[in-house]
Amino acid sequence: MISFRKVLFSVFCWMIFFVPAISDHFIKHGTNYPLTILYDEADDQPVQIAVMALADDLELLTGIRPLIKTSVEEVSGEAIIIGSLAKGRYIQQLIDLNKITAENVMDLWEVYSIQSIVNPLDQIEKALVIFGSDKRGTAYGVFELSERIGVSPWHWWADVIPEKRKAVEIDQMNFVSKSPSVKYRGIFLNDECWGLNPWATNTWEPEEGNIGPRTYAAIFELLLRLRGNFIWPAMHPCTNAFYKNPENPKTADAYGIVVGSSHAEPMLRNNVDEWDHEKYGQYNFFTNRETVLNYWEERVKESSGFESIYTLGMRGIHDSGMVGAETMQERVDALHDIISQQRELLSKHVNTDPAKVPQAFTTYKEVLDIYDAGMELPEDITLVWPDDNYGYMHRYSDAEQEKRIGGSGVYYHISYWGRPHDYLWISSTHPALIWEEMIKASYFNSNEIWVVNVGDIKPLEYNTSLFLDMAWDTSCFPDGASVRKHFDRWHKNIFGDEAGQKIADVKWNYYDLNFQRRPEFMGWSQTEPTRKVHPTEFNHFQAGDEAQKRIDAFNSLTQKSAEITEMIPERLMDAYYQLVEYPLLGAAYINKKFLYMEKAYYYAAQNRIVANDYALKSKAVYDSIQFLTDYYNNEMAGGKWKNMMYMSPRSLPVFDMPAIPQWTFVTDSHWGIATEGAKDVRRVNEIKGPLYLPSFNNLLHQEFFIDVFLKEDKLLEWKAEVSNDWIVLSHSSGVLTGEKESRQQRIWVSVDWDRVPTDVRANGYIRFSGAERNYTIQIYTNRHNPSIPDKHIFVEANGYISIHAENFNRKHATESFEWGIIDGLSYTGQSVWVNPLLIKEKQFDPELNNPSVLEYDIYTTRGREVEVTIYAIPIHPINQNYGARLGVAINDEVPQIVDHQTYGRSEEWKINVLRNSAVVKTRHEISSAGHHTLKIFALDPGVIIDRITIDCGGLISTYSVLEETIVFDQ
């Protein structure tokens, strides 16, 4: 058993990375020995709520509800004693009797302790004592115990039903938590009109007819279980303003949740619902000053008795720019005046010293430009840095900003409505991206407020947990590997070790595929303004049929998911459906909807009768999404989540089913072939000249495809003969019947290099025959014999070189910059970054003296001009002192400096965030064939390289990653 006294990690890290071990129990709850929970009825409401929740949890596990007492005279035997230091009188008694120690808890923020005590008070033989430095700390300690005994924080919100037991055995404990890494940790309910609001309105809280106190109570309990303490309430036009129902703020206060308001809603006002144009006039501080100030003052007075963080500043109604200012200087001056007036209101109604009132200023969208234009912000106001809505932080504090009394914070998105395209449907933000951006926030001391846009909550369960877990104790996440450990443990805690690990493997690959392209972006369309869908950029005829590889990847995951289902107990089937099956199948089906329809059109252009089948396949997977969603809403968990899931938020074109074409083909023969490598889609019967495959290279493991297909619904018996025994076919004969799934066949061609003559270039052919028709495909080979330095070398093949950035040959670090590897944040599985966690305020030498550099050994077949393309993760500069620069050189040439920094909502930025990739190019002259060295120089911290291609004249067009042209020294 792991000794709690000897664990060196914090309690929370222990819970993430280790399986709790139960041996000699300290106290026990069950049928014959019900525990008693003792607390002080005068303690804060969050403590009382946590007590009742723990009783519910113990009853959920055993079927037996513990006794709940507020008088020690009514307690004997074994008990759990709960209370806060300030108001828990039994806790104070234990301190006075020297039964518990509180030095490590006293006067700290949200700290808790759990201690096992023998004979703590009269008649009590054993007690597990849970106490906190404050009301929330106490509640967190209670929910820590709940999770330890097997009740997931998501037990209600994701139907993670724990296994029933005759008894719960609680081991001896003696530890103290740390104070949280981030002071205010919370969520923003947003874009809720397709899930949370209709569910609350029609299913959960119909008496309110909207999101009301019953819904918020469920959300606030979830926040406490996740160690959160902060919320920006829902604020879209479909939702009533939070303060419209006075029970909402009272409920927040009861749960100890601090209430703020979003970047567009100063002074806790919901402008969309509360600013009445007929009553108030224009929301314009320049022309309607007194009315605006009175409007804010009403809310300040109303909220003064509650814990709040007041958003300062002013924007327009519902995420729009300030009205009335014509120039940047007018905006700066106006915000100075506005914030001064807002602080006067706080001084008047909340605290005479406004510096003691929590306040935030969020530099979202155009506000960042105003701030940069010379705006002066009082030092005690927390400066909240936003991301760009797609998970990439615009910036972090520089050295001077880190010194601010009010500190700084983060506003982050894992769900978004807006340009260039929404992603509101299912979870698609890679956990590795959340880690990479939030660990930088922690490093640059943005630790006052972290708030994450979770949309409707339900599709984003894991990502919400990760964000709040990092906010609670960032030290548990020291490197990129730690987020994968957290990911695995989260799923194991719900589904058990064996099934949980298999699920984690599947879900991680799911996020990898979604990182390449989110499901909602598969229409290659944009919104605001909304535009029609376009063909994807996945190549169907090169790179081994890139589109089919993506289909196959999703098919593999869905097959594994189906196999895992057999391992899931009945009590967890609903949890499995919403946490795994629905998002995975939904992503797979929307991908296949587009890729199948593209194949239908491309194959129709080649007179393949299978085109009609692919069009019907596209319709079938669309229907499957409808079926999945109907089950989610109406069958899963007995209809508990009816109206929560919507398969087409905002009804954008990407979610539509395109018209289903059915072609009639007229052709001069009833079959044909198509080879990999065609540069465009062409009718096979119009091909002039010989057919051929891309050439084979002895340094690489290559295979290329040939499709045999029917043009008419007739039986075909075909065979293939090779000119040389070194040409290897996956199939040398076959039968196409015209039945569905038997209208075409793919043959893979490879080379057995042990049999190829030692000539530099050996050629051959494949002859296909059947039904009085023959086709001949030429086969070309190239043999190279370069020496392989160091570990490996990247070789030219068919006119290009493909490199995965993490597979460098050498790296040279400096005091200023160190290259490191990140797992998961890439198209390739890993990426390389200029580690920003090792640098502060150190500028790299612009003359490139003593550089930090990655080196890649490459081999080209001849001298020529080449184009190097670097695919980087589209991060923004760390702060205004840096860019997103790299230096690129081949051999000893002077490095070319490139910068993928984008500005505002430029077209480049839109493309970058839709593909999670920033592309920069350089051109270089290579003098001769043979060995060369590609060098990548670090110029700015935080830059992340995913992959690299070198176009030597034959680079093929693909969307995702090309297979590496790498030779390892074996």
TrEMBL record:
InterPro entries: GH115, GH115_C, GH115_sf, Hex-like_dom2. GO terms for biological process: carbohydrate metabolic process. SUPFAM superfamilies: beta-N-acetylhexosaminidase-like domain. Keywords: Hydrolase. Coiled coil: none annotated. One of its GO terms (molecular function) is hydrolase activity. This is Glycosyl hydrolase family 115.
